[in-house]
Structures are given as C-alpha cells and as structure tokens.
Design brief:
The complex is a heterodimer. By secondary structure, chain A is an alpha/beta fold. Chain A has 14 helices and nine strands. In chain A, strands 1, 2, 3, 4, 5, 6, 7, 8 and 9 form a nine-stranded mixed beta sheet that branches. The chains are: A alpha/beta, B mainly beta. Chain B: It holds the Pfam family CGDB.
C-alpha cells in the first residue's frame, strides 16, 4: 500500500524461520506469502536465499526474476554483507571490502534492485563506493543496526562523510531494531522456558544501562546464582536485542540521508500495538521529514518464538497504515 | 564487550533424527556419516568453522579419521579454515565421514561442538562474533542413503 508517497514493502528475511527450518519452503513460497499480504516491493538477502554467495549462480538470479515477474512483484533492494572475515586470521583491508561491495553491486544490478543494503563500509572507502554505485546504477545504503544508535559517533561520522562526498548514491537504512525500548514478552518467555530466573532477567533489564559491560554483567549474574540460560539472555540484550530509551533525536538527523527503512519488529499485539518499538514517534518523524520512499517491514520475532510471520506481518502493515494515515493528516494540518 | 557466543533457536536442525548413517562398501563397513545443519539465519563460508569436535558414545573421534564434505569436495578438519571460497548455504548440510570401520546398529549419543566465526561482525582487529552451532542428540544409526 502507498500512503502519501510512503510505500510498504517486506524484507523476505521476515520468513527466515520458514525458509531455514522447512526443507520444502522455497523462494517461490516466500514470494507467494508476500503476494498474499498484497505487497509488491521486497528485499532479498543473498546469503540467505542463494546457494552461492557472494556471487550467486546465474540460474539462481534467473529463478528469482522469473518467480517475481509471474507474481507481479519487484526486488526493490538487495541485502548484501561485508563478509570480510572469510579469510581466517587475515586482517581485512580495502581490497576485501571492495571485493564484497562489487560482488553485491553486480548481483543487485542483475536483480534490477534500485538499492543495495550493506552492513559496513569504512569511511575512507566511501568515495570509491559512490563511484562504484554510479558504475552499476545501484544506490548503496548502510544499515544503522542495533546495538548501534543513530547518535553514535561512528554513525554521525558516516553522515558527515556522506555530506562531504555529496553523492546521492550513498545513504542510510535505519533499522528500527535500534529503537527497542524493552525486550518483548515472547523474548523473555523464551529465556524463562530455557531455565532463566525471571527475577534475574528483570535485574539484567533494569541494569542494562548502568555502565556494566557484558562480561561484568555476566559475572554479577553468576554471583547471583545465574547460569547458562541467563548468559544467553545477556548476550542477546547486549547484542541484536540491545534496548534502551529510543534515540529519536539521532534518528531525525539521518532522515534527509535515508534511502529507505527497515521497519524491524518482533511482536505486534492483536490490538495493533508494538510494545517494544515506538512506532508512532518513528513514523511521524518520517512523515514530518517529507520522506518519500519505502518502509520495509522486517519481522524478526522468529529469533525467539515459533513463527507466525504472515499473521505478524499483516498486523504490522495495518499498524503502519493506521499511524501513517493519522500522521499524514496531522502533518497536513501543521503545514497549513 | 560485544556479543560473545550467539545461539539461534534452530538447534533442532543441527543433528536431525536421520543424520547418522552407516557407510559401507562391498568390502564391508568403512565407517559412518553424519549430516550437520546450520543453526543460523544465513549461510557462511566454510572457512568460518573455528572448531569442530565430534564425540560419539562419550569417545572423542580422532581428527585424522574425519573428512568433511561440502559441494562435492572433501576437506580434513585442519583445512576448513582455508576453505574461504566454499560457501555453506543455509539449506544444505555439511556431511562428515568418519573412517573408523563402522559402529554398531542402534542408538548412539552424538555430541557435536561446532564454533563458527561470524565473518561480517568484527569488533576489533582479530576479534569476531562467534556462533555456537553445537548440539547433542541420541541418534539411531540409519542404513546407507
């Protein structure tokens, strides 16, 4: 659906549990699930869906294009990776980054994607990245992903570099996982089911931002009687499920340099509320910035709960539609 | 400090019930094979294997009896770290061959310790995120494929 210039897309990573655990679930099945949600734009992550990476076999690319065409859907963006640690014991240098960037740009171009998502490009290589993006006619977005936050120094330095270089090819892809305010109940339930003490989990959550490092927290929880289940929870809460007060001010600094958004989510209730991520605040900042482009829903609840990706995505799309319709009206009123 | 050992909830697919199979030739039993699935959300280069240790019925399997097969190629465990152009896709198993003359029919306790380097997650020079792909399961020896 397109609401005042903001179009909803879906990252096929949302169907990760299905793809990984069901032997017969294919890219075609993922695209069928996409179509059933009435969404046309999607992101494909190469290292998930291709058997060959960083360069897929031409037949694999052909298969994605054919399956897309017959369903009337479009690969909007390609999820690449800087797998620069693939050579054991080797400290990656510029050549390693350029190799991976080039491989992903080629694949993105072959898929007809307008955007390539990259995980990290060193600042001194960004001018070259912009040049390569011109060669391939593909824009490069650097994902701002938890545990990073938009206000972090390294993100702001990237923003300054984008401004300095001045190429429209370079931009950000903020991932809403940066704005988790508190782990969702299903995430906690999984640790409790694995044997974690609910009180110790609460202690970890309450003291996540007390200045303790991950190791110090682990040590303290061990002293309080915690074990392996709590260690796994700590690793998660200091890693991809890092949480804290949402960095909304930092978020607004990136908006003029944003290619599109990963509208990451973990759980939407039946009442269409996201208890983890402040969606109304994020979406109204996007509308106020005048952004026109794609909001890519990305379900990651499969990281800790049995998946019902289609149901969760349907709720998330409706939640976004509700907020966007309201925000668009508000914005119109404020602009008069 | 960064996330140390990530463990995703796909552990059930590391050692599937039918993963352990006898490996026989017309000359008799040669050993057995074990299929290993990834407990991760994406594929990884084979060189991401940091350590692979197999214990069957509480006996560690000596490294020199093991060969690892991926994409039709065989590797001793000591060479996995060099296999950076081989990609282990998420839906494909790694197959381990153990040349020990075979094991008895019936159930066997299989303990796999498999640590993988997260090749895109560097925290400092030489410091990478690690993925715990280990699993333990009692598997019943199956006939040859």
């Amino acid at each position: 659906m397109n609401i005042d210039g903001i179009e909803q897309g879906i990252s096929l990573y949302s169907f990760n549990r299905e793809f990984v655990t069901l032997p017969d679930y294919t890219i075609e099945d993922a695209l069928d699930d996409l179509v059933a949600l009435d969404v046309q734009q999607y992101e494909l992550v190469g290292s998930v869906f291709f058997e060959h990476y960083p360069r897929p076999d031409p037949a694999e690319v052909e298969r994605v294009l054919a399956a897309s065409e017959v369903r009337g859907v479009t690969p909007f963006s390609y999820g690449g990776y800087m797998d620069v640690g693939r050579i054991t014991g080797h400290d990656p240098g510029p050549q390693d980054y350029i190799l991976d960037l080039t491989a992903d740009l080629r694949t993105a171009r072959e898929l007809g994607c307008r955007y390539l998502r990259e995980t990290n490009i060193p600042i001194d290589l960004l001018p070259m990245a912009a040049e390569f993006a011109d060669y391939y006619g593909v824009n490069i977005g650097i994902e701002v992903h938890a545990p990073s936050k938009p206000s972090d120094r390294h993100i702001q330095e990237q923003l300054e570099a984008f401004e300095r270089i001045g190429s429209e090819r370079l931009g950000f892809i903020p991932d809403f996982g940066c704005f988790i305010e508190r782990p969702a109940a299903p995430a906690l339930d999984r640790h409790i089911a694995a044997g974690a003490d609910p009180e110790l989990l609460e202690y970890i959550i309450a003291n996540r931002h007390s200045g303790l490092t991950e190791d110090q927290m682990h040590q303290r929880i061990r002293e309080m009687g915690g074990g392996e289940a709590e260690r796994v929870a700590i690793a998660e809460f200091f890693g991809f499920l890092s949480f804290g007060p949402a960095d909304l001010d930092g978020f607004t600094t990136l908006l003029d340099r944003t290619h599109y958004f990963h509208s990451k989510f973990y759980y939407v209730t039946e009442e269409l509320e996201d208890p983890t991520i402040p969606m109304p605040a994020l979406l109204s900042a996007i509308v106020d910035s005048g952004f026109q482009g794609v909001l890519m829903s990305e379900y990651e609840g499969h990281a800790f709960q049995d998946s019902d990706a289609p149901l969760q995505l349907a709720r998330h799309l409706r939640l976004e539609q509700q907020i966007l319709s309201g925000s668009a009206k508000q914005h119109e009123i404020r602009s008069r | 400090m960064p996330t140390s050992y990530m463990k995703l909830p796909y552990e059930d697919r590391v050692l599937r019930p039918e993963a352990l199979r006898s490996y026989d030739l017309e000359t008799g039993p040669v050993g057995y094979s074990l299929d290993i699935g990834l407990n991760y959300y994406r594929g990884l280069p084979l060189s991401a294997v940091e350590s692979l240790e197999l214990t069957v019925d509480a006996e560690p399997v000596p490294e020199h009896l093991i060969l690892v097969e991926l994409n039709g190629k065989l590797f001793p465990t000591s060479q996995l770290s060099a296999a950076f152009t081989e990609f282990w896709p998420i839906k494909k198993d790694l197959r381990i061959y153990v040349f020990n003359g075979g094991i008895e029919d019936g159930p066997h306790q299989v303990d796999l310790r498999l640590i993988l380097r997260c090749v895109y997650m560097q925290f400092a020079p030489g410091v990478w995120g690690m993925i715990d792909n280990s699993a333990s399961r009692t598997l019943t020896l199956q006939g040859e494929r």
